[in-house]
Amino acid sequence: MAVFVKGARVFRPGATLFHKSWFHGSGVLQSGPPQAEFFPPAEGVMLPTGTFSNRVAFITGGGTGLGRAMTTTLSQLGAQCIIASRKLDVLQQTAEEISSQTGNRVHAVQCDVRDPQAVSRCVDQMESLTGLPDVIINNAAGNFVCPSERLSANAWKSITDIVLNGTAFVTLELGKRLIQNQKGASFLAITTIYAESGSGFVVPSASAKAGVEVLYKSLAAEWGRYGHRFNIIQPGPIKTKGAFSRLDPTGAFEKGMLDRIPTGRLGKPAEIANLAAYMSSDYATWMSGTVIRFDGGEYVLMAGEFNELRKVTADQWKVMEAMIRSTKGS
């Protein structure tokens, strides 16, 4: 009898593969317990201590959520960080907390990325504090759910100004100064899996994030000669307080999200932070123009035409197989 081992569990064909409580109260093909047990998030920092020593990292939207997580990881790895957003009080609190945790300086600089003049002033301030950065992470974002027929011009502009224009203003301002100073750098943008597929009800965000990806791919081709590389992370659902309060205020959609993620859980900010650190580090210097989808398998499950067959019960499979066997070829 064939036996295979998964983690500390041993499974044999025909043994405990069906359980009525796991799927809709019916006998359903199931390989073991809920799959999230096999994919626990790793704790801690992935890269070696000192990976970013003597490096400067600039992170937009660095005060909360994913931005805070990425700043924390880069600071733990030795980087001197500058975090920027509109809310200076939030930035200052985050900077103090991370600095006290890691022992490395984190600077808070107020910046409205929608305003190119504000971006220029922010970069001036950064240059006086730390010099030009080695790592730039464009993470500032805005989003809300809305039927597209209810969108106003102002609603469209409020998202695209932050996501697309803000990323462009930061990237171009820093890129030009880096080129003038003959300094190389790693640029990273945080987008979303629906930048590739599109998505209803978040059309401004989907459009703007897709634009960011094309911007970065284009500059990867054009500015490699200046020592600049550009990469993109497409996160799937990551449970951060800010994003979920806007996009799932009632919590009604979280269960549906879990149902369409093959690994059976949401992502953690620290997981994105470890990936971002790797992509921004000297371990990834041959990576440019790359888009990494990081979503627990959500995209491929939603894309496959027949993937909903995972919900078919064992009894239904028997009926279907009998029908298939009884069908004569033409």
From TrEMBL:
Protein's GO biological process: fatty acid beta-oxidation
Record GO cellular component, one term: mitochondrion
EC number(s) stated in the UniProt entry for this protein: 1.3.1.124
Keyword tags: NADP, Oxidoreductase
InterPro entries for the chain: NAD(P)-bd_dom_sf, SDR_fam
SUPFAM superfamilies on file: NAD(P)-binding Rossmann-fold domains (SSF51735)
Molecular function per GO: 2,4-dienoyl-CoA reductase (NADPH) activity
The reaction(s) this protein catalyses: a (2E,4Z)-dienoyl-CoA + NADPH + H(+) = a 4,5-saturated-(3E)-enoyl-CoA + NADP(+); a (2E,4E)-dienoyl-CoA + NADPH + H(+) = a 4,5-saturated-(3E)-enoyl-CoA + NADP(+); (2E,4E)-hexadienoyl-CoA + NADPH + H(+) = (3E)-hexenoyl-CoA + NADP(+)
Top-level taxon of origin: Eukaryota
Family to which the UniProt record says this protein belongs: Belongs to the short-chain dehydrogenases/reductases (SDR) family. 2,4-dienoyl-CoA reductase subfamily.
Cited function: Auxiliary enzyme of beta-oxidation. It participates in the metabolism of unsaturated fatty enoyl-CoA esters having double bonds in both even- and odd-numbered positions in mitochondria. Catalyzes the NADP-dependent reduction of 2,4-dienoyl-CoA to yield trans-3-enoyl-CoA.
Protein's name according to its UniProt entry: 2,4-dienoyl-CoA reductase [(3E)-enoyl-CoA-producing], mitochondrial
Species of the source: Lates calcarifer
